[in-house]
Amino acid sequence: MGAHSHETSMFITQTLFVVLLILVLVWYIVAVAMTSRRYKKKWPLQRTIFWITGILCASVAVIGPLAEQAHMNFILHMISHLLLGMLAPLLMVVSAPMTLVLRTLKVKHARRLSFLLRSRLTGILTNPIFTTILNVGGLWIIYTTDIYMLMQQDMFIHLLVHVHVFLAGYLFTISVIYIDPSSHRKSFVYRSIVLLIAVAGHGILSKYIYAHPPNGVTKAQSETGGIIMYYGGDAIELAVIFILCFQWYKSTRPKDLLQNILVKSGIPR
Amino acid sequence: MTTEEKSQQRHANRFAYSSRNLWGGFLFGLGFVAFIDETVFHQLLHWHHFYDKSTTDIGLVSDGLFHALSWFATIGSSFMLADLHRRHAFWLRRWIGGIFLGAGTFQLYDGTIQHKLMRLHQIRYNVDLTMYDAIWNITALAMIVVAYILVVHDRTRKMGEGS
After folding, report:
1. Single pTM value for the model
2. How confident is residue A269, by pLDDT bands cut at 50, 70 and 90?
3. How far is A79 from A67, CA to CA, in rounded Å?
């Protein structure tokens, strides 16, 4: 009975993921078409491409052969988690879905939503310190307790861990880089320090996993998995750091730059 | 604006942003040394190890923090450099002094505290380490001395003469 119910629950979770992913993919494309018709300014094409790529990354991680193999193989599990918890959230954040939501909703509903976004709860949920604890702390708990072993046996825990990893990754990304409107903004220095600690926490955990295999994982697999987590994480974190620094660069543009140009071209102050 | 006025403006900008020149260089130097450490000693020579059985927990934390900092430093300092140019406030001598200071400080920290005290990993395995450690740390000290000459010596020169 055990194997049979396992198959059934696996089928249910996979179907759930497929439906959900197709829904958000179709929603985005329809919304872009709608908003492009309503506003003169076209929705940037690269955002749609980022969204589609992000959904693809998340899909590869939760459905299909990689997701299936990841159950037995820690190395593939690590790759799928990098895709689901880091790359997919980043790609989806840079495609500005909340802006798209606000643009396509009716004014009345958009107002209610933006009220919700300004609420205290959203402030806590998008606080970089909170999201770092949720994200990196969550990972530490998954890999240093028996949760990793349990998620390979129990479909419900499996589903829960996947949802947590994605949501924690998404919240963390929006708390550090501001693409969508956000009313609980923190300074660049604040976000930089928190991002630094989060990146360090991720690296430390990678090396910890390298040395201490989670229950049910062989030494060889935990070593490779740890290295993939370390360097794969680096690559995606690099992109986040770049965006954050670039946003700093744009925001500190000297105010008198325009003045200088005027002076240079001979127009008196 | 005449040429003289322009160069005066430039000097004023440089002094206004003198610490950003130094810190930008410092972070760049730190990132650069970490990059060399990773590519040359870890990936190419395979002298350094990803993990060493004798690594202490504090060593792991320190490694994680500095690894993160080195990425941040490289990217952040590049944008700082662009910012200095945008403000016409770039001061080459001070910036290079900063690079030597950052590179030397990080290498000295790596060579003494991380390698020796925290036993993160050694420079090389199965060899007598004395020479390796000496060269590593003396190079680090030499870089700090160069930084001192470039940065402090510069201050005693006439204002704005440094290029």
Report:
1. 0.87
2. very low
3. 10
The C-alpha R_g of chain B, in whole angstroms, comes to: 19
Sort out which chain B residues have CB atoms less than 8 A from A203's CB and list them: 63-64, 67-68
Q: Is B61 on the interface with A (CB under 8 A)?
A: yes
Whether the predicted pLDDT of B52 surpasses 80: no
- Per the CB < 8 Å rule, is B64 touching A203? yes
CB of B85 within 8 Å of any CB in chain A?
no
The answer to whether A234 faces chain B, any CB pair under 8 Å, is yes
The pLDDT of residue A37 is above 90 = no
Q: Alpha-carbon distance A108 to B69, whole Å?
A: 45
Closest residue in B to A265 (Cα) is B1
Question: How far does the CA of residue B149 sit from the closest CA of chain A (Å)?
Answer: 31
Domain boundaries, given as residue ranges, for chain B: 18-156
DSSP B56: -
The predicted pLDDT at position B123 comes to: 74
Q: Do B63 and A203 touch (CB under 8 A)?
A: yes
Residue A238 touches chain B, beta carbons under 8 Å: yes
With an 8 Å Cβ cutoff, are B71 and A252 in contact?
A: no
Q: What tens digit of pLDDT does each residue of A39-54 get?
A: 888 899 999 999 999 9
d(CA A188, CA B72) in angstroms, rounded, equals 13
Is the Cβ pair B76, A241 closer than 8 Å? yes
Distance CA B163, CA B94 (A): 9
Residue contact A207–B87, C-beta within 8 A: no
Best CA proximity match to B102, nearest among B14, B35, B2, B6: B35
Predicted complex ipTM: 0.82
Give yes or no for residue A81 having a pLDDT over 60.
yes
- Of residues B120 and B18, the one with the higher pLDDT is B18
